[in-house]
Amino acid sequence: MTRRRDAVVSHALLVLASLVALYPFLSILMLALNEPGRRLSGFALPENPSFGNFTNAWERGGFSDALVSSLIITGTVVVVAVLLSVLAGYALGVLDLPLAKVVVGVFLLGLVMPYEATVIPIYHQMKEWGLLGTYPAVILPQIAFSVALGTVWMRGYFGSIPATLREAGMIDGAGKLQVLRHILLPVAAPAVGVLATLLFLYTWNEFLLGLVLLSDNPDARTTPVALSFFAGNRRESDPGTTAAAAVLVALPVLIAYVAAQRKFVQGLLAGAVKE
C-alpha cells in the first residue's frame, strides 16, 4: 500500500507540474487561435478557432526572412560547435596533453563569465572587422560560447568511457582519430545528441547578440529579434496577432525538442552513469 500511495502522489505531482509548465504556452495558443481583433483576457477557449492571426502575423511581421536567418545561424553554430567540442573534448579528456588542466580552466572561465559583459567588446570587435549586420557577427561569438560548454560536456563524457575500449582499438592498430570515430563516437552518440539539442535551443532563442549586432540589417534579424520589434510596434498591438507570432517563433524549437525527446532523455541518463 505504501508503494502504491507513493506512486499515486508522485504521478499527481508530475501532472500538476506539467499543467503549471504548459499553462503559459496553452494560454498563448488559445489566444492565437481566436478570431482576429477579438479582445480576451486570461485563459479562454476559442469559440470559432481561426488561423487568421497566424496569417496576419506572418504577412506583417516578415517572419519568413527571420526564420531563414535563424536557421542559417543556428545550423552553422550547431554543426561547427559540436564538431569542435567533440575534438576538443576527446583531446582534453582522453589524450595525455600538456597543460590540459589549464586549457580546461580557460573553458570553465568562459562558462562562468557574465554573458552580458561580453556584448560590448564583441560589438566593437565586429565593428572593427566590418562584420556588423552580417551573419558571421552572430555566428562567431555563438560558436565560441557553445564550444566552451560543449568541450566541458564532451570531456566529461569521454572520460567516463572505460579505457579498455580505447586500448582494444589501439591494439588492433587503430590511430587516435580512428579510435574516436569508430569506437568512442558510437558510444557517445547520446551525449552528442543532447549537446546538439541544447545548442540548438540556446542559439535559436538568442536575443541580445542578434539585437545588438544585427540591428543595422533588418533582413538578417533572427526570429526573437523580429518578434520583439513586431510586438513593440503599436500598429501591430493586437494581442491575438502577437500571440500567433510568438507561437510561430517557438514552433521550430518545439518540433526539434519533440523529435529529439527520446534521444535527449537517453543522453542525459547515460551521462549520469559513470563506469
Name the descriptors.
275 residues; mainly alpha; MetI-like fold; 2 domains; 12 helices; globular; cell membrane; transmembrane helix; transmembrane; Carbohydrate ABC transporter permease; MetI-like_sf
Characterize the structure shown.
Its main location: membrane. It is built from twelve helices and no strands. The chain is an all-alpha fold. It has two domains: about 1-50, no CATH class; about 60-270, MetI-like (MetI-like fold, Orthogonal Bundle). α10 packs antiparallel against α11. It is globular. The model is unreliable at about 270-275 (pLDDT under 50).
Give me the secondary-structure topology.
Blueprint: H1 2-32, H2 52-61, H3 63-93, H4 100-112, H5 119-129, H6 135-160, H7 163-171, H8 176-204, H9 208-213, H10 223-232, H11 239-259, H12 261-271
Quick overview:
It comes from Jiangella aurantiaca. By secondary structure, this protein is an all-alpha fold.
Q: What is the CATH fold-level name of the largest domain? A: MetI-like fold
The overall pLDDT, averaged over residues, is 80
Query: What is the overall silhouette?
Result: globular
Strand content: under 5%
The topology string of helices and strands comes to HHHHHHHHHHHH
Helix fraction? over 70%
Number of strands: 0
Membrane topology: Multi-pass membrane protein
Family: Belongs to the binding-protein-dependent transport system permease family.
Protein name: Carbohydrate ABC transporter permease
InterPro entries: MetI-like, MetI-like_sf
